[in-house]
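Troubleshooting: if your tokenizer reports a length mismatch, compare your output against this known-good record of 382 residues.
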Amino acid sequence: MPADQPRFTRDQYPLRHVHLGQSATVGGGRFVAVCEYCGCREIPLIGRLSEEHYQAVDALGVLRRAIESSDAVAVGSAVVALREELITHNESEEAGLFLELGRDEYFAPTIAELLEQHVQFRVLLDRIAGGDWAAYDELEDTLRHHIDREENGLFPATAVAVDGDVWTEIDRLTHAFNHERGREHGHTEAEALQARRGDAGHRKSPAGDEDSTVTKQADERGHTATHTRAPAPRGRRDLVVKLAEGFVLRPAKLDDAASLFALWAQAGLHVGRPESVVEDLAGVLALHPQLVLVAVAGDSIVGSVLGTWDGRRGWINRLATRPDWQGRGVASALLTAVEDGVRALGGGKVNLLIEADNYDVVSYYEGRGYATDDLIFMEKYL
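Known-good structure output:
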């Protein structure tokens, strides 16, 4: 690529189409969006890295259960398995995607943060292997944040910002790394992704031999993922991330309206009529569904946020947590997910409004980096 040619083309792609999961045709080429909520992930490298996140989360769950059972032998084996899944995944990112993105000032701060977390994973795994099982909680929290930053921040942003020539170089570097390590290595990342879904290519067994007896598991979208061990149960692929326990985040849907009405009433928000919840939910889902999230524990919705994007800034609406789940990180996880989603859309600012009788929450938002501003709010009902 000529030195004077821009490596990253953030301004070429219409963000609205990208994050509605539609194709944006620019300069005669077809650009396919990637976003957890758009249901895409059709950029092969991102698809593979996202699949590997689920593998790492599965391995983390095995480690948690081993620690809970106080089985030192099982803990040791689980650490080895998690290290194999996570560290090799990290090194693959560093060899291609991170190397290229780190050269751009827009991505460099995020890449630096993620690289620090890669180092932290090694340190925490070493501590657990050495008998400091209390380090597990920090490992889980760090991995939760790391996956969220990639799935809902870095990956959608690269889909918008990175041009074809850079993707080709990232693909080449990543393929070289995977080939050297004996991982899935079709001639391109596209072939590697197909191999992982069971359509083509080949995979090395843990012993290094060709393994033609890998098992297959179809997900709810009809894709097939290959496994060299019995597959652990998986949740729906539209979850942001599911770790060992607690709650998960997922996109809201119209069927959630009744549960949201009850949640907002419990949380002390002004809810109006039940029909208005359906109308409001339908409206925001039609705009940017990746910003409209609920937190789910078991079969119950325990938190919500209706995020919106007006083309210049993001807005936080209906951030609520069920009273018995307050103080457990639900609101923070929802808020972070929307902030990352707005950032991926190209936004640099998030706004919110607080009603006077809810003033006590100001300190919470200040603790999250928000500041008050002296504005006069006006409205008109149509």
